[in-house]
Amino acid sequence: MTHSDAPDGLTPQQFAAVLDWWRDAGVDLEFVDTARDWLARPDAAATAGNAPQFVAPQPPPPPPAPKIGGDGADLPATLAEFAQWWLTEPSLDGGQVFDRVPPRGPAGAELMVLVDHPEPGDSARLLDGPQGALLDAILTSFGIAPDAAYVASCLPRHMPMPDWAALAEAGLGRIVAHHVNLAAPRRLIVLGPHISSLLGHDPAKSANPLPRFNHEGGNLAVLVAPGLMRLSGRPRDKAGLWNAWLDWTG
Predict the structure, then answer these.
(1) With 16 labelled, which of 4, 32, 205, 226 sits at a CA distance of 20 to 30 A?
(2) Do the Cβ atoms of 100 and 157 come closer than 8 Å?
(3) Structural domain of residue 213, as residue ranges?
(4) Which pairing describes strands 212-215 and 218-225: parallel, antiparallel, or unpaired?
(5) Where are the strands (E) in 62-211, listed by range?
(6) For residues 50 and 37, what is the distance between their CA atoms, to the nearest angstrom?
(7) Strands (DSSP E) found in the chain
(8) Alpha carbon distances (Å) from 120 to 96, 100, 128, 132
(9) CA 164 to CA 173: how far, in whole Å?
């Protein structure tokens, strides 16, 4: 306690005399009945008004992901140009252009078959392995010569676990729609559950199949079926595809 702490009614001189009297009596400390934690941190609520406030700077928002094919102004205008663009366009695969496989078949085909990606080992011909052999057998059972169908993939090379949500966000659906528009088939079969999400159909929100595909002013009948890998190991799914084909074309 200091002279400035003098109680009301005492002058500083009087208070100093009182302190001297107690000091001479051997009392030079102040005692209280309750313990005090001298190591305790100051009460945050009591010191909040006096403590400087630190506000962490907010990080800048991430830049938007680049769109596949850019703004779309330079997309190929013909199917032949698209096939070449498919093999060389960097934005299709994060700048990588190796191991790409072109689509095959004639424009204006009776049927277009759309799969998710090429088979492992494909090079000059799309679906050149067991899945392609199965597709040829399916087309033959449909009464369509394998070379008469237009066969294309959503991705330019084999990708075991593609991030379909990210690809859709990057604009792959627009590329697929443009491809279908250039191929101009009469009908479209989609082999793979993830592909329909690129065509504007969300399987998580609707169990109903995608009946038609509206694309760049066109309107196309669509049949969605399991992928070729699943069909190869499940005879029941093959039978389901055959029955769906009969209902679709009957």
Answers:
(1) 32
(2) yes
(3) 98-249
(4) antiparallel
(5) 111-115, 150-153, 187-191
(6) 22
(7) 111-115, 150-153, 187-191, 212-215, 218-225
(8) 17, 11, 9, 11
(9) 10
Q: Looking at the domain assignment, is residue 73 inside a domain?
A: no
CA atoms within 13 A on the CB side of 93: 19
Instruction: Please give the backbone phi and psi of residue 214, each rounded to the nearest 5 degrees, phi first.
Output: -90, 125
In the numeric block, which tokens belong to residue 173?
């659906």
159 domain residue, yes or no = yes
Pairwise CA distance, residues 225 & 126, whole Å: 19
- Looking at the 3D structure of the chain, how many domains does it have? 1
Token pair for residue 133?
A: 């052999």
Amino acid at 23: R
Place of tokens 């993830």: 194
Give the residues across from 188 on adjacent strands.
112, 222
Left, alpha or beta for 175 (phi > 0: left; psi -120 to 50: alpha)? alpha
Condensed to tens digits (0 to 9), the pLDDT of residues 105-163 reads 999 999 999 999 999 999 999 999 999 999 999 999 999 999 999 999 999 999 988 99
Q: Which amino acid is at 92?
A: L
Q: What angle do CA 75, 81, 85 make, to 5 degrees?
A: 65
Task: Write the CATH number for 203.
Answer: 3.40.470.10
Other CB atoms within 10 A of residue 245 CB: 19
* Residues 168-205 pLDDT 10s: 999 999 999 999 999 999 999 999 878 877 877 555 54
